């Protein structure tokens, strides 16, 4: 850092690049290591444009997206009707549709297409429709079979929106729905409780045997996709903020519990306000007072979104900055490339460089205030100066990897606009050296030291403000800090946690510096994922592990993954705080950054996929039958450097009726909390006891329900109808790779990669992961089936008459020889077909002539090519629907052919979770029977918790009516 500019300047002038800073503390000198031949430099641009990979410029990203999922969460140019708050129905021949305008705050239910005539209801199938009008169908009436329940739930929300004013259970995470906020409660995709009616005291909660907690997704995509209102600090804006205490102090907050102003703050006639969280009354300053009407509403209610919206952003003053008294900055990115031999050999390195180039293009076009830096590493650490006045790349090489320094003091981070040429030249030259100078490559890699040096660079240039490191790793780190030796490999078989303290300590210091790491592992042999990937998981980053990376198979997917992960970034330097009404407090945030404690977790970089699960506890009894409030406040800096706090509010009634409590359980949040708890116990890899614990938990819930509510029934499986499919999803978890007892070395990476997914998957992704959705394509479909229902291209339509045909359970017995299926597991869409599949169907769908043997059918770039046929359009719309639900820009389409694709056995095993598995795991029937048996035994042995509220059984019906 103290190296003089002059020395560097002259060295650079002589050699242009390849400058080695082989330093001693007192005598830092730079010398040339190698020089790129000018001819190679001149040719590089041509090479790039001819390369099949680099040929994917921005325009082809867009065209690729058109086929699949060209929506962007931050605005779209995909031809979607821009006015998202006005979902007009698609105009088609189903003339029972009456397009109706939907207002922003509520919208009317359009005339239903779903008044099924009784003859439409399939009689062989256990259908509720015979008795029920579809519009009034609730989770309580739905099928206990996951695939059927999914369609039923989607059908319900085709014709109506979800209103947030009552203790209804939110739609399933696999359902796309329009939400209208009521009563100041947010869209449940942002914040949802595991219990929509909260037990009035811990003993009642305990008697349900269910966890009380929350799932928070502060930046998830909601529908309508209107922008979250920003309450500005500055008086000159459209929304003047007299409700800030003053401009230095920030938004109005409760003086006692520090809750933020929200729609449930109660303004009183005596110029005061009462906090909804802790009930403390505060006097308002004169300028904050407004006249109040008979309903208690302020006269300025309608112009202040913070008084009626469930979720708003407040701009906050410098007092709230991540580093006090230091100005906030736009987000900074650092790309870290593994240029060691093994990373180069399998094409991982070159694939990553191409992806970096496209990522930087994306940043230039979409995040123009963000700056970028480039580093690489083998046995040395290499820095690149991105000075816009340079014509050639300047590379500085530091060999003292564990005593690293930054060899220059400007243009480490560079504007993607001003430095566009030098950034491109640097990446081109790097690619050229890799492809043309194989003799120069070094086999050792110092990954641990390199990410440490990346942190040093952030700390040096940005004063600890943090940002995003996007790193690639091509093989096991062999030298420097965090090198992994063979002995460590053994340790990797017995733990999911890092055994090297280097990676744990590094993760802590990353969080302190608001640094997040995304890691792309392009190795072709074992790398110790539990160690090298840990800093990503602990800093809210992602780890992408491609198994045996090959250029042909993975190049396109790698690029899409990186672009996607950049496009979903919403901010950084974030910290989450949950506040709840008196009597409820935080037990733990499930976050590695705070060691799963009750400390407010730091989220160095936050994305639209970020999800935090929170377990609550009772600190006191709650008032019965009152409204309880929950507020999530996320302090963050947006990607342009504006400091804000996102305040998300919801409410739920309390109750002491067990029937009511069970009736309003949100199974999805329950499932997430159960899994997070289990994962905490998973480090020892004692899978037998984990399985036992799953069975024990589920049978305890069933026993409590039977003992306290349903009594002894003749039904085969008795549990609350709100929890009907919980065993199925938990069986899915039990069958996931993280729970497999195999301890082969390579397999262990699959396990750890799977384990990591549970930290990063959002609600919808997890639902599809645990129980993939299978859609048959060879069945007769009605004209409107599998096409978009609304003009915003959000809701996928199926007709009630097709429901039976479209329901495929995840069992081999349901897969028809000669059929064709689309299967989605949250990450990948598989297309299942075999040699008996109707070739006309494949021709219509994929545009492949019947003469091509099925083993030769390829899906180029894992995309569905447009063929213009009906089935092709349906599949394209289904894929887009899925990609929107899981909030992904892109989902690859991959063929799944028995006896042809090498991954077939592995993949099909993870899909057919209802079957008895190869690893001797129960079928769904066996699993359900075990739960029933164990719960019966518990009841017989009186092993259940009685509540004083048992006598309420006879008045429960009346209780329901109150909600
Ligand atoms: Zn308060």
From TrEMBL:
Task: Indicate whether Protein transport appears among the record's keywords.
Answer: yes
| Cited Gene3D superfamilies | beta-sandwich domain of Sec23/24 (2.60.40.1670), Sec23/Sec24 helical domain (1.20.120.730), Severin (3.40.20.10), von Willebrand factor, type A domain (3.40.50.410), Zn-finger domain of Sec23/24 (2.30.30.380)
The alphabetized UniProt keywords are: Cytoplasm, Golgi apparatus, Protein transport, Transport
Please report a single Pfam family linked to this protein: Gelsolin
Q: Where is the Sec23/Sec24 helical domain?
A: 666-767
Domain Zinc finger Sec23/Sec24-type: residue ranges: 251-286
User: Residue ranges of the Sec23/Sec24 beta-sandwich domain?
Assistant: 571-653
Instruction: Please state every residue range assigned to the domain named Gelsolin-like.
Output: 807-859
- The segments labelled Disordered in the record are 1-20
| Keyword Transport belongs to the record | yes
GO MF terms held by the record: SNARE binding; zinc ion binding
Q: What is its main location?
A: cytoplasm
**Segments forming domain Sec23/Sec24 trunk:** 329-562
The UniProt entry, under InterPro entries, shows: ADF-H/Gelsolin-like_dom_sf, Beta-sandwich_Sec23_24, Gelsolin-like_dom, Gelsolin-like_dom_sf, Sec23/24_helical_dom, Sec23/24_helical_dom_sf, Sec23/24_trunk_dom, SEC23_SEC24_subfamily
Q: Name one GO biological process term.
A: intracellular protein transport
Cellular component terms (Gene Ontology): COPII vesicle coat; endoplasmic reticulum exit site; Golgi membrane
Write out the annotated subcellular location: Cytoplasm; Golgi apparatus membrane
Its family remark reads: Belongs to the SEC23/SEC24 family. SEC24 subfamily.
State what protein this is by name. VWFA domain-containing protein
The organism encoding this protein is: Tetrapisispora phaffii (strain ATCC 24235 / CBS 4417 / NBRC 1672 / NRRL Y-8282 / UCD 70-5) (Yeast)
């Amino acid at each position: 850092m103290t190296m003089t500019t002059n020395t560097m300047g002259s060295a650079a002038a002589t050699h242009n690049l390849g400058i080695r800073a082989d330093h001693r503390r007192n005598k830092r000198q730079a010398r040339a290591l190698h020089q790129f031949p000018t001819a190679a430099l001149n040719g590089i641009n041509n090479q790039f444009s001819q390369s099949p990979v680099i040929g994917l410029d921005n325009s082809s990203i867009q065209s690729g997206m058109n086929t699949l999922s060209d929506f962007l969460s931050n605005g779209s140019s995909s031809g979607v009707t821009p006015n998202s708050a006005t979902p007009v129905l698609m105009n088609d021949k189903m003339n029972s549709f009456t397009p109706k305008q939907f207002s922003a705050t509520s919208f009317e239910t359009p005339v239903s297409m779903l008044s099924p005539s009784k003859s439409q209801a399939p009689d062989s199938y256990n259908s509720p429709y015979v008795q029920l009008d579809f519009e009034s169908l609730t989770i309580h009436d739905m099928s206990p079979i996951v695939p059927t329940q999914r369609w039923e739930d989607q059908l319900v929300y085709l014709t109506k929106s979800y209103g947030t004013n009552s203790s209804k259970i939110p739609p399933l995470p696999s359902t796309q729905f329009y939400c209208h906020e009521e009563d100041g409660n947010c869209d449940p995709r942002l914040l949802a409780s595991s219990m929509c009616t909260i037990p009035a005291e811990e003993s009642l909660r305990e008697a349900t045997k269910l966890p009380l907690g929350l799932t928070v997704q502060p930046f998830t995509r909601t529908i309508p996709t209107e922008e979250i209102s920003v309450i500005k600090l500055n008086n000159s804006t459209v929304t003047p903020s007299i409700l800030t205490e003053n401009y230095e102090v920030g938004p109005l907050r409760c003086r006692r519990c520090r809750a933020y102003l929200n729609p449930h703050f109660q303004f009183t006639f005596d110029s005061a306000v009462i906090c909804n969280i802790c009930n403390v009354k505060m006097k308002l300053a004169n300028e904050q007072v407004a006249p109040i009407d008979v309903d208690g509403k302020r006269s300025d209610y309608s112009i202040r979104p913070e008084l009626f919206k469930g979720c708003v952003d407040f701009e906050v003053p410098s007092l709230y900055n991540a580093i006090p008294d230091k100005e906030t900055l736009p987000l900074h990115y650092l790309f870290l490339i593994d240029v060691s031999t093994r990373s180069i050999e399998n094409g991982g390195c070159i694939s990553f460089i191409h992806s970096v180039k496209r990522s930087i293009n994306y940043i230039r076009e979409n995040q123009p205030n963000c700056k970028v830096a480039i580093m690489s590493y083998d046995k040395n650490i290499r820095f690149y100066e991105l000075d816009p006045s340079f014509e050639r790349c300047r590379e500085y090489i530091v060999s003292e990897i564990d005593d690293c320094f930054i060899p220059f003091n400007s243009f480490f981070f560079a504007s993607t606009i001003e430095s566009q040429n030098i950034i491109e030249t640097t990446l081109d030259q790097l690619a050229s050296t890799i492809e043309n100078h194989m003799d120069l490559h070094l086999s050792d890699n110092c990954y641990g030291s390199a990410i440490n040096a990346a942190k040093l660079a952030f700390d040096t240039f940005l004063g600890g403000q943090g940002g995003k490191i996007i790193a690639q790793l091509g093989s096991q780190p062999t030298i420097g800090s965090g090198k992994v030796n063979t002995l460590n490999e053994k340790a990797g078989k017995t733990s999911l946690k890092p055994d090297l303290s280097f990676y744990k300590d590094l993760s802590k210091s990353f969080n302190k510096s608001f640094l997040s790491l995304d890691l792309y592992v392009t190795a072709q042999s074992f790398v110790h994922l539990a160690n090298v990937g840990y800093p990503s998981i602990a800093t809210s980053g992602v780890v992408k592990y491609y198994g045996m990376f090959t250029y042909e198979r993975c190049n396109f997917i790698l690029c899409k993954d990186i672009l996607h992960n950049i496009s979903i970034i919403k901010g950084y330097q974030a910290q989450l705080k949950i506040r709840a009404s008196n009597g409820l407090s935080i037990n733990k945030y499930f976050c590695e950054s705070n060691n799963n404690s009750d400390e407010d977790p730091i989220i160095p970089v936050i994305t639209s996929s970020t999800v935090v699960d929170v377990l609550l506890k009772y600190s006191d009894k709650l008032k019965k039958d009152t409204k309880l409030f929950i507020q999530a406040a996320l302090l963050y800096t947006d990607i342009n450097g504006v400091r804000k706090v996102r305040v998300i509010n919801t409410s739920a009634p309390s109750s002491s009726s067990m029937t009511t409590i069970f009736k309003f359980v949100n199974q999805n949040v329950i499932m997430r909390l159960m899994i997070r708890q289990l994962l905490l116990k998973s480090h020892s890899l004692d899978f037998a006891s984990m399985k036992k614990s799953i069975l024990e938990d589920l049978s305890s819930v069933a026993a409590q329900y039977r003992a306290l509510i349903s009594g002894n029934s003749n039904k085969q499986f008795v549990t609350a109808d709100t929890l009907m499919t919980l065993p199925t999803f938990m069986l899915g978890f039990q069958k996931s790779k993280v729970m497999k007892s195999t301890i082969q070395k390579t397999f262990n990476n699959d396990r750890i990669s799977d384990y990591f997914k549970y930290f990063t998957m959002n609600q919808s992704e997890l639902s599809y992961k645990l129980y993939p959705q299978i859609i048959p394509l060879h069945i007769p479909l009605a004209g409107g089936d599998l096409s978009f229902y609304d003009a915003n291209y959000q809701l996928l339509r199926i007709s009630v008459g097709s429901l039976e045909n479209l329901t495929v359970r995840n069992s081999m017995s349901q897969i028809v020889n000669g059929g064709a299926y689309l299967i989605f597991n949250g990450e990948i869409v598989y297309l299942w077909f075999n040699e008996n599949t109707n070739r006309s169907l494949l021709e219509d769908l994929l545009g492949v002539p019947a003469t091509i043997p099925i083993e030769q059918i390829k899906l180029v770039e894992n995309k569905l090519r447009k063929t213009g046929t009906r089935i092709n359009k349906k599949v394209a719309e289904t894929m887009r629907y899925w990609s929107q639900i899981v909030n992904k820009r892109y989902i690859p389409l991959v063929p799944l052919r028995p006896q042809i694709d090498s991954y077939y056995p592995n993949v099909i095993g993870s899909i057919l979770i209802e079957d008895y598995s190869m690893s001797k795991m129960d079928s769904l029937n066996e699993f359900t029977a075990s739960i029933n048996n164990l719960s019966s035994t518990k009841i017989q042995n009186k092993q259940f918790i009685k509540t004083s509220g048992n006598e309420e059984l006879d008045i429960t019906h009346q209780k329901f009516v109150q909600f």
